[in-house]
RNA sequence: GGGGAGAUACCGAAGUGGCCAAACGGGGCAGACUGUAAAUCUGCUGGCUAUGCCUUCGGAGGUUCGAAUCCUCCUCUCCCCA
């Protein structure tokens, strides 16, 4: 792997970079669509690529369980198995320690999961996680960590951090040389000193890049921003910084300004399947009745496949009737929107005016439909018509 | 012509004297969703001048302190036999 910082924004900590990985190059800051089960839900790899995505995520816990590494190995590795020949990053299963909290028990050695499908027990240790990730053959693999929930008291955050650091050592030891690179993950909750301690510890071990973990787990947005900014600044300049699991379009724009190089989030794909799409003006719940007779594209001027060929009224109709195509079109649009957003971010940094780009974007983008006078006007109109 | 069953909110369907503005499902409307146990989950769904009031369980009348629920008549629907 080679990571090059091409340009630094004069007014913010934002930076433009390029990642050279085993399966290709990725311009940063980048957004990585999430494909937990070796598929970005509802869309084909060609469609993912057409949105502009150059790297995607997959998941160790889920793929280790089903179909299991033997089958993926026999298929010729994850890339061949899922027919995606660009870079892949696999998450270690650390997030499942958080999201499947009711089904697992943490010990010093690792985590015992009661598998959510069959109920049988599976132990994930740092060595096992790395072993699975190497077998899958992703370009970037992640150290096994504990993602503690919010709120976590200082004592718990402290313990959890020690565990994550121990696991980082073991992850590093288990990682054999090859085209794959291993990233460490910074934990420490919202505590500055713990984040500092974690970064120090990880740097001592030495990783190709660093994930900032433990955010977007329910903490107030301001606290997430504060912690992300602070933590990003602690990390070595020459290595890629990956803010794990976040976020909304605004969060990406804000946090790219902290010097984050990589993002991933389920928001564009999940929101798409659940009937929400993004536009430069904010979130639009295309499922809603306001759009039943609205024959404009999801976003005017958008170049995505969905917007080139279909209208809000049609896509709402598809959602309303439970048609699969609704999920596909909304997902394609959202992924394109995210990639278009990142293209804008990169261009602005290239031009050295990231601050202005941020301001313009945030001024236009309304995250809550209720903030939008246009949306509430539209709702009122719909009510009158009914 | 004879016998039987039924009519409940937008639809289907429970309820058979007070705890009923009425279970449950569908539909509709809205909200949530952040390293995906998610094509999922949650809320609302008669009206209003709203800790209460008004209208509503096919229609009209009656019994009762009180009726979707009991009685009488009427209207309509379905099934079986001729």
What is the fold's blueprint, element by element?
Elements (H helix, E strand, L loop, with lengths): L1 E7 L6 E7 L2 E5 L1 E4 L11 H7 L4 E4 H6 L3 H7 L2 H5 L5 E4 L2 H6 L4 E3 L4 E4 L6 E4 L1 H11 L3 E3 L11 H21 L6 E6 L5 H14 L3 E4 L8 H14 L6 E3 L5 H8 L5 E4 L1 H7 L2 E4 L2 E4 L19 H5 L2 H9 L3 H27 L3 H11 L8 H13 L1
Parallel strand pairs: 4-14, 5-6, 6-10, 10-11, 11-12, 12-13, 13-14
Antiparallel strand pairs: 1-2, 2-3, 7-8, 8-9, 15-16
Helix pairs in contact: 1-14, 6-7, 7-8, 8-9, 10-14, 11-14, 13-14, 14-15
The protein binds one RNA strand of 82 nucleotides through helix 5, helix 11 and helix 14.
In the predicted model, the low-confidence regions spanning at least 5 consecutive residues are 369-386
Sheet/helix structural class: alpha/beta
Taken as a percent bin, the fraction of beta residues is 15-25%
Strand order of the largest sheet: 4-14-13-12-11-10-6-5
The biggest beta sheet, please? 8 strands, parallel
What is the helix content? Answer: 40-55%
Q: How many beta strands in the DSSP annotation?
A: 16
- The best one-word shape is globular
Whole-number mean pLDDT: 93
The helix tally amounts to: 16
Give me the Rg, rounded.
21 Å
Distance between the termini: 59 Å
């Amino acid at each position: 792997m080679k990571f090059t910082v091409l340009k630094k924004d004069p007014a913010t900590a934002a930076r433009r970079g390029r990642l050279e990985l085993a399966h290709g190059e990725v311009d940063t800051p980048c957004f990585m669509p999430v494909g937990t089960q070796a598929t970005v839900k509802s869309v084909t790899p060609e469609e993912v690529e057409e949105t502009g995505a150059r790297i995607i995520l997959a998941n160790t816990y889920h793929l280790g369980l089903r179909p299991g590494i033997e089958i993926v190995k026999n298929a010729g590795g994850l890339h061949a198995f899922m027919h995606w020949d660009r870079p892949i990053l696999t998450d270690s299963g650390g997030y499942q320690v958080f999201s499947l909290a009711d089904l697992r028990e943490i010990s010093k050695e690792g985590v015992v999961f009661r598998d959510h499908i069959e109920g049988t027990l599976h132990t994930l240790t740092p060595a096992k996680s790395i072993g699975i990730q190497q077998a899958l053959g992703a370009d970037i693999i992640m150290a096994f960590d504990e993602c503690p929930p919010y709120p976590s008291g200082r004592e718990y955050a402290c313990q959890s951090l020690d565990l994550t650091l121990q696991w980082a050592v073991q992850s590093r030891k288990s990682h054999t040389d090859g085209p794959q690179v291993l990233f460490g993950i910074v934990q420490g909750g919202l505590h500055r000193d713990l984040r500092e301690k974690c970064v120090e510890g990880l740097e001592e071990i030495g990783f190709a890049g660093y994930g900032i973990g433990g955010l977007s787990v329910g903490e107030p947005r301001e606290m997430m921003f504060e912690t992300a900014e602070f933590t990003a600044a602690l990390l070595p300049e020459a290595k890629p910084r990956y803010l794990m699991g976040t976020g909304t379009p605004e969060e990406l724009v804000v946090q790219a300004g902290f010097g984050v190089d990589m993002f991933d989030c389920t928001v564009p794909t999940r929101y798409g399947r659940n009937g929400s799409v993004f536009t430069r003006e904010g979130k639009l719940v295309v499922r809603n009745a306001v759009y039943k007779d609205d024959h404009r594209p999801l976003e005017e001027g958008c170049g995505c496949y969905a917007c080139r060929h279909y209208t809000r009224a049609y896509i709402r109709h598809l959602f309303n009737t439970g048609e699969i195509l609704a999920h596909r079109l909304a997902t394609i649009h959202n992924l394109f929107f995210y990639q278009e957003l990142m293209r804008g971010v990169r261009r602005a940094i290239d031009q050295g005016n990231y601050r202005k780009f941020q301001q313009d974007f945030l001024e236009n983008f309304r995250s809550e439909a209720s903030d939008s006078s246009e949306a509430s006007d539209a709702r009122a109109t719909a009510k009158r018509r009914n």
